[in-house]
Amino acid sequence: MATEITSSPEVHYEDRKKSSDKAADTEKIQLEQMETGGYAGKNHTDFSQVDGEVAKYTSEIRTVIDQATNKRLRKLIDRRVLAIMIFTYFLQALDKGTLSFASIMGIQKFTNLYSWLTTCIYIAILIVEFPTNWIIQRVPIAKYLSINIMLWGATLMCHAAVKNFTHLVVVRTLLGIFEACCQPSFVVLSSMWYLRSEQAATVSYWYMMNGAQQIVGGLLAYCFTLLQHGPLKNWQALFISYGGIAIVWGVFVMFWMPDSPMRAKCFTEEDKHLMVERVRSNQTGMQNKQFKREQMIEAFMDPQTWCYCGIAVFTTLPTSGLGAFANIIITSFHFSVLQTQLLAMVLGAYIIIVLLSSVWLVKKTGQNLLVMLAFVIPSFIGTIVLMTVQSTDMPKKIGLLISYYITLSFWSAQTLSLSMISRNIAGQTKKSTVVATNFVAWAVGNAIGPQVFLKWNAPRYLIAFTVHLVCYGLLVLVILFLRWHLLRQNQKKDELAQDGIQEAMDDNYTHAFEDLTDRENPNFRYVF
Hints:
By secondary structure, the chain is mainly alpha-helical. It is built from 21 helices and two strands. It has helices at 13-16, 23-35, 52-55, 67-102, 115-138, 141-158, 165-179, 182-193, 196-207, 209-225, 234-256, 269-278, 293-301, 303-324, 326-331, 337-365, 368-388, 394-406, 411-424, 428-448, 462-498, and strands at 2-4, 62-64. Strands 1-2 form a two-stranded antiparallel sheet.
């Protein structure tokens, strides 16, 4: 391990304003920084803006960590943080998927409004998303997560006791409330513990548990389907088993997962210092419990926020419908119930392949948004085939099944978009606001998704698939605009560096922990 200090002459605001022909842009950025509490011409860290816990483990001196130490730290973090995120998200995906599997086990007899059982979850998430993100910023995040895991496990077990549609709506709504903290917590944790270069893979690893849920869930559902005798119906046994596992896991998370590098009693003081310094170059901060109104306003004024919301809506709207109606759609191709359960496993494997391959391409090319665009193309093709080909013989059945699988290629856009939020949004209040807004949009898409699958339009659901095609078209437009916007913002900051603005080319990352937003920090560059 070695230390490195990058010093630079102090550059005052009035001097910088006259430093080049780009004075107008420079002045605008500096005025924004001064008005929002950002720095103007400082070459030292303002510790009054650094969170107290973080300040104990950092300094103005950048600590350069060698490759071997970095690898060792990464393994420690993976064992305590990534492993928890992966299995927790697997349980959440499995819990949500139970309704899809139970739908062909007999639970549909309670209602003719099956689609609302998925929609009510996301209405609940939509309502509680801002409050839960406010809480995440202020409380020990691992403890808050573990409590919610135990609560959603208990709620899942209560599904086995339902007697009518009202009961189902109540337990599904409660499930949505308790699960609302999961993904926002993981976005924050990914930003807190991992380098920006690692976050696309980190987010993909836990997000691909949606695919693992299809594989394991399909196999387990097949086993539960074979339960034809006993005091419990097969779908009741399904809910009780999954809920009990979630409760036990929540207790484990409470004691195993650290809330932050600063509070991690499982690591040495030296390692905690290195883990904080390790993410200095992210410049997205680590934690700050102070609510900053100006950062919230900036979040709502930033085009990035609404682009991520657009991606969330235009991907989750198709996803939620295809997910909730997965087994019903596959059954419409005239496969048996048991065949349908097993074929869902293939879908899960395909989702994992899509997410892993998209991460590999991003790592190879460095192009997040272009990779997103590439993976939308199969979704267009698969949806058009589903709309135009009828299931009349076995070859067409197989072709329709494959087409249904490839429609879910756009999942890579969901995953990469989440990782871009964690990598491109700085300032804790701004990040909390953007994450909450994103998941409100995510909930809106998920709530609407099942509603476009109209019962009278079964079994081909042409209206639903037409809506999906429109979503894919709008998704392409949003991705193209976001790429243009981020490229333009980076060019502006590069111009400041070329004009000699020291803060725009600070290799020491002096202000990395000052809770500056990505706009306030001229040294910040966007990943796209």
